[in-house]
Amino acid sequence: MSTVFKQQKSKRDKAEGIVAKTTEDTPVFRNKQRVLLLSSRGITSRHRHLLTDLGDLLPHTKKDAKLDSKSKLHIINELAELNNCNNCIFFEVRKRQDLYMWLSKTPNGPSVKFHIQNIHTMEELKMTGNCLKGSRHILSFDKNFESSPHWLLMKELFTQVFGIPKTARRIKPFVDHVLSFSIVDNRVWFRNYQITEKPLEHRSVTDTTDLTLVEIGPRFVMNPIRVFDGSFGGQTAFENPEFVSPNVARSNIRNAKAGRYKSRMEAIAKKDEKLKEAEMPEDPLSENNVFA
């Protein structure tokens, strides 16, 4: 019926001399951001729960099976194209303990690689905050994102990946929580807060609003490693000089422990030498020598 109505309306407009405006004259912007969410093999239970929490927070995501290869990450661009996605969140796990998160604009880039630290999932935190599953959220960014170009690039990437379009199919028409991105110690701190009303006993006369924030979870810290020009590779646009690999950190800890053990062994050897030097020579008039 709608098609017949449009045809009849166009005929009537032509008869009356009304010229319809074309879409080229008035282009309409439609936010069609879709995110592919997947991980590599060897993911732990905590990392898997974090991946599930992000999938619950972002209703415009599409989940895929675990990726077998860790060296051929360009395959993810083809997977995103097959799933009709133009963004990707990829969890790369190394040695079953180190979690790296890739944020990428597929298929042309750019992409950012983060080292994820201080992970706390929703079930683990047990916060009092709560929000509707599938609802939209407000993105809140720290003013430090305006300080340098690479932070501006990450802000735009966060906006396109974590921002939920109004036309997503699985969203609810509510805005009841806030995703906060703050820069502290050259790291991005991620928090999720519920927008709720203050209790009557906690309100004061000077309050300009009766709204407050209650943390929901999850929470984690993203330490940027590199910003690439392409998707999952390409030329390095930014490299964090302060980043220390977890392997190097663990090696330093082992070397420190080995140094303490070595110094303790040297102290024991010096003690044995002092005891040997302190021994008195045997007396020739002792009982053992006289009555031998």
From TrEMBL:
<keyword id="KW-0539">Nucleus</keyword>
<dbReference type="GO" id="GO:0000027">
    <property type="term" value="P:ribosomal large subunit assembly"/>
</dbReference>
<feature type="region of interest" description="Disordered">
    <location>
        <begin position="272"/>
        <end position="292"/>
    </location>
</feature>
<comment type="similarity">
    <text>Belongs to the BRX1 family.</text>
</comment>
<dbReference type="GO" id="GO:0006364">
    <property type="term" value="P:rRNA processing"/>
</dbReference>
<dbReference type="InterPro" id="IPR026532">
    <property type="entry name" value="BRX1"/>
</dbReference>
<protein>
    <submittedName>
        <fullName>Ribosome biogenesis protein brx1</fullName>
    </submittedName>
</protein>
<dbReference type="InterPro" id="IPR007109">
    <property type="entry name" value="Brix"/>
</dbReference>
<feature type="domain" description="Brix">
    <location>
        <begin position="33"/>
        <end position="233"/>
    </location>
</feature>
<keyword id="KW-0690">Ribosome biogenesis</keyword>
<comment type="function">
    <text>Required for biogenesis of the 60S ribosomal subunit.</text>
</comment>
<dbReference type="GO" id="GO:0019843">
    <property type="term" value="F:rRNA binding"/>
</dbReference>
<dbReference type="Pfam" id="PF04427">
    <property type="entry name" value="Brix"/>
</dbReference>
<dbReference type="GO" id="GO:0005730">
    <property type="term" value="C:nucleolus"/>
</dbReference>
